[in-house]
Amino acid sequence: MDDALKAPSRRAFLKGSAAAVAGSVAAGAAVAAEPDPLITELQDWASSLGEGVDETPYGLPIKYEDDVVRRNVPWLTADPISSINFTPIHALDGTITPQGCAFERHHSGAIELSKPDYRLMINGLVDQELVFTYADLERFPRENHVYFCECAANTGMEWAGAQLNGVQFTHGMIHNMEYTGVSLRTLLNEAGLGAAGDLKDKWVYVEGADASSNGRSIPMEKALDDVLVAFKANGEALRKEHGYPVRLVVPGWEGNMWVKWLRRIEVTDMAVESREETSKYTDVLADGIARKWTWVMDAKSVITSPSPQSPITHGPGPMVISGLAWSGHGQITRVDVSKDGGMTWETARLGRQGDTKALTRFYLDTEWDGEEMLLQARAMDETGYVQPTKAQLREVRGENSIYHNNCIQTWHVKTNGEAENVEVS
Amino acid sequence: MSKFLKVTAAALVLGSPALAEEKFGLGRPALPEEVAAWNKDVLPDGRGIPEGRGDVFTGEEVFAEQCAVCHGDFAEGVDNWPVLAGGFDTLGDKDPVKTVGSYWPHLSTVWDYVNRSMPFGAAQTLSPDDVYAITAYILYSNDLVDDDFELSHENFADFEMYNKDGFIIDDRAETEYTIWSGEPCMENCKDEVKITMRASVVDVTPEEADEGADGAMQGHSEGTVEVAATEQAAEPEAEVVETAAVAVDPELAAAGEKVFRKCKSCHQIGEGAKNRSGPQLNGVMGRTFGAVEDFKYSLVFNAAAEEGRVWDDESMSAFLAKPKGYLKGTKMGFGGLKKEDDIAAVIAYLRSASE
């Protein structure tokens, strides 16, 4: 780890953090040298008046939080219209992602489709092909569930090595919201599946209303299990970038299947094998053969703080290591944390027992001795699956699959509190 | 899908808050015309494809007109836009080149995707014959057919793609889940740990992120560059009107309209023109650079706007000849017009169409 210490710190914010560490070491001393003017002097806000109600009819985060925003990696795609950005997970806590900073992925841009203009068609092998309006959907029994939505390409840039220096970029193609909607099963039942005959080999093809006409084939078993036709997220209408007014929620399965601006549901007797399930979202193995229909997002976790964008800004002593864990197979049952690159592990505390197929927050309340750390987290889910290392993943899949990289991530925390994305032996 | 039947039965009986058999009588029957309008997907066995035909030669023309700006004349891909041809036998290499030819397992996917999703910015505007022709041309540019090939609904289902056997169904349950499970190691899991790679060496993290993190460390940073630039850009609207006065040669403008097909996938012009991936171009001649208020320009365009640079014949000719040479850093993903005549014509068209 010696060479690590000499690595120059290129980034301005890292200098900032080093200074902050020095400052707070002093401030951390048990005795204050001088009285704190923030306490002893009358502050403006304690004397004059603040803003009245209605100043911002729809409230936004206070200006001090204006760096907690989605960010894009421009070199990834040719054009921002068909592109992706990343959730600032380094700056969030708990599990719910506010809609305004939840990552976006569009194939032909985010469209504006109003509720009055919205139509949903069910066609194909059903007893009665139907058209619903938005108002119709609101008259079916509704359900509420919290689910994570992860793009299959999350962490995809890291297959060949440590690339992007920030958890927002390595793991930010994910969000977690509470959805309100109608079960897809209810809508399929409304159209009637008698015409489909034996349901075992049937599929549901779902398609969006935007110009990309993004469509995916979902096996009937999943369609009748927990798929939701959702119109609210975190209590309010979906944002346009997430498919207003109606999107599909496919719990535990890759984000591309969560079709936005959902306009059509077709019952078929085979997979359509659309572009998004052949050219994309298939995983090339080392021998050039590709896996298809790899829908489930396997268990994964990552430490969000400390991390490159969220360095340690205090001196040695009590600290909280925090992160997120999730599994497309069900609940997270345990998360272990290592400070030495995987030689020894401690079991972290779950903030709250997570919901199935939803983000779970974990904390390791610990002491920092001021020394370097190689931080890792390792998730386990209810099936007994243990999140693999990068080496384990590469052994089975090679380095070319782009998608479904759920490897253990390592952050190298230096003595000044800075953290860097690294790979370890 | 072995546990399928059990799950379904349980789901239908117990899962829903409503009884499964119960229907609500909501919605209305879909009319045949409505289903026909939306039900466009084509299945791997060819079901769903409309009748029609198109040959390689026609396809080459349509492709040059509608697709080549992004995908290249030979489907080789311009800049960062997708490559559609070549890459054969690279799938097992370090950086596989996955194209329609080297990777796609079904011809139906090509026809279906081009028909429903391309050209980017003008989806669903191609006729079935054009889609047949383009598909034939993409096969030709991949050396999969000869130049006299014609594709039609009749021979469509018989065509076998190069990589049709290149896929297996998700086998993680056998190859991974069984291995990566059980009680994991907690102590002495390895003898030593070495850093083998670090992100700062590759250094591809967007600078923006630094600024953000910087802000986080030093507290709130006042109004961003972007906001300032947009305000600047908002002003020059008034100048736009004057330019219409320049006399335009109608013949030249008509020729320019043809050239403008190369621009259409990204730009609109004329009444009701909206921003697409490029800004709307109404009154662009005589307009300040980067002046469309609600369009997000690149930094060079914002800088040019700030300097108050105005589009005239000279600047427009230079820009259209070599966009990236003239304004380094522009995000206009277009290689440039090679012929001076085309440039003069399209400028005349830009003037006339804005009138």
What is the total tally of β strands of chain A? 24
Beta fraction of the residues of chain A?
A: 25-35%
Please provide the ordered H/E string of secondary-structure elements of chain B. Answer: HEHEHHHHEEHEHHHHHHHH
User: CATH architecture of the largest domain in chain A, please?
Assistant: Alpha-Beta Complex
Distance between the termini of chain B: 62 Å
Please give the count of helices of chain B: 15
- Classify the helix fraction of chain A into a percent range: 10-25%
End-to-end distance of chain A, in Å?
Answer: 11 Å
CATH topology of the largest domain in chain B: Cytochrome Bc1 Complex, Chain D, domain 2
Instruction: Tell the overall outline of chain A.
Output: globular
Structural class of chain B: mainly alpha
Number of strands of chain B: 5
Tally of separate domains of chain B: 3
Beta strand % of chain B: under 5%
For the record, the CATH class of the largest domain in chain B is Mainly Alpha
CATH superfamily heading of the largest domain in chain B: Cytochrome c-like domain
Number of domains of chain A: 2
Shape of chain B: globular
Give a description of the structure:
The complex is a heterodimer of chains A (about 425) and B (about 350). With about 425 residues, chain A is α+β, with helices and mostly antiparallel strands. Chain A has two domains: about 80-165 and about 170-290, Alpha-Beta Complex (Sulfite Oxidase, Chain A, domain 2), CATH 3.90.420.10; about 300-420, Immunoglobulin-like, CATH 2.60.40.650. Helices cover about 15% and strands about 30% of the residues of chain A. Chain A contains eight helices and 24 strands. Chain A has helices spanning about 1-5, 10-25, 35-40, 135, 165-170, 185-190, 220-225, 390-395, and strands spanning about 70, 85, 105, 120-125, 130-135, 145-150, 175-185, 205-210, 215-220, 230-235, 235, 245-250, 260-270, 285, 290, 300-305, 315-325, 330-340, 345, 350, 360-370, 375-380, 410-415, 420-425. In chain A, the strands form six sheets. Chain A has a five-stranded mixed β-sheet with strand order 5-4-13-8-9. In chain A, strands 6, 7, 10, 11 and 12 form a five-stranded antiparallel β-sheet that branches. The longest helix of chain A has 16 residues, at about 10-25. Chain B is mainly alpha-helical and about 350 residues long. Chain B has three domains: about 5-40, no CATH class; about 55-160, Cytochrome c-like domain (Cytochrome Bc1 Complex, Chain D, domain 2, Orthogonal Bundle), CATH 1.10.760.10; about 215-220 and about 235-350, Cytochrome c-like domain (Cytochrome Bc1 Complex, Chain D, domain 2, Orthogonal Bundle), CATH 1.10.760. Chain B contains 15 helices and five strands. Chain B has a two-stranded antiparallel sheet with strand order 2-3. In chain B, helix 10 (about 225-235) crosses helix 12 and helix 11 crosses helix 15. The longest helix of chain B has 14 residues, at about 130-140. Chain B is globular. Classes of the chains: A alpha+beta (about 425), B mainly alpha (about 350). Chains A and B meet through helix 2, strand 1, strand 4, strand 5 and helix 6 of A and helix 1, strand 1, helix 2, helix 5 and strand 4 of B.
